[in-house]
Specification:
about 250 residues, alpha/beta, TIM Barrel, eight-stranded parallel beta barrel, 11 helices, 8 strands, globular, binds phosphoenolpyruvate
């Protein structure tokens, strides 16, 4: 199995002092834990402060979004070069809130993912079905479509830096976690699809995170699944104790 990867998505939360305190608190709690890759994804404006707070620790930093152009007249957008400048290693692309609240399409997400890889960031491609799609037995078709379109044009070599996060939309921020079996079924489907699109070796090495109301109490059960390689954590990543407990459980 690939090295587990736990990432915290802070979304539009924290303030300057809180972001720095959360990051340094986590760095203290996790000192010496090397068997899990850990990243935090703060809001853009706190990236610099968080980079300072985690300097020298094993915690890496990610951004929550990226724009696909390098520079120019794109008011409000942030480029890959800018994210690298403030020490980001990862970037989340295609989060369900960007798909469903902000209207991002698979084509835009693919351009962002490609720009991230080309520019030297490691993208976390989020995919997941809406509740009505699950109830209509469309989960596999929806998720497979998002994976295929998100990864369009990505070469086998480039897949080395890609993480896929399966996040059923109905489980994000709702307190309703997918059952361990529901998560495993979709993760296994994604891995089979990666084997078809690439090969067994790439499918085996690509980390597939689960996201959706993951918390200390369900971490062990979710992570016990053979195809769950990590977690993308929203709410529970905003509390040092909860997030650190999840990482220690996995470690
Ligand atoms: C997320 O934001 O990606 C997420 C999974 O949120 P939560 O853990 O709060 O459901």
């Amino acid at each position: 199995m690939a090295k587990p990867f736990i990432a915290g998505n802070w979304k539009m939360n924290t303030d300057a002092a809180g972001a720095a305190a959360l990051a340094s608190g986590l760095a203290n709690e996790l000192a010496g834990i090397g068997s899990v890759d850990v990243a935090v994804c703060p809001p853009f404006v706190y990236l610099q402060a968080v980079a300072t707070a985690i300097a020298g620790s094993q915690i890496k930093m990610g951004a929550q979004d990226i724009y696909f152009e390098d520079k120019g007249a794109f008011t409000g957008e942030i480029s890959c070069g800018m994210l690298k400048d403030v020490c980001c290693s990862y970037v989340i692309v295609g989060h369900s809130e960007r798909r469903h609240v902000l209207g991002e399409t698979d084509e835009l997400i693919n351009r962002k993912l490609t720009a991230a890889i080309t520019g030297g960031l490691q993208p976390i491609l989020c995919v997941g079905e809406l509740l009505e799609q699950r109830e209509a037995a469309q989960t596999d078709a929806v998720v497979a479509g998002q994976v295929k379109k998100g990864l369009a044009g990505v070469t086998p070599e480039q897949m080395q830096v890609v993480t896929v996060a399966y996040e059923p939309v109905w489980a994000i921020g709702t307190g309703k976690t997918a059952t361990s079996q529901q998560a495993q079924e979709v993760h296994a489907m994604i891995r089979r699809l990666l084997a078809e699109l690439y090969d067994e070796s790439i499918a085996g090495k690509t980390r597939i995170q689960y996201g959706g109301s993951a918390k200390p109490a369900n971490t062990a059960e979710l992570m016990a699944n053979p195809d769950v390689d990590g977690l993308l954590v929203g709410g529970a990543s905003l509390k040092v104790a909860d997030f650190a407990t999840m990482i220690k459980t996995v470690a």
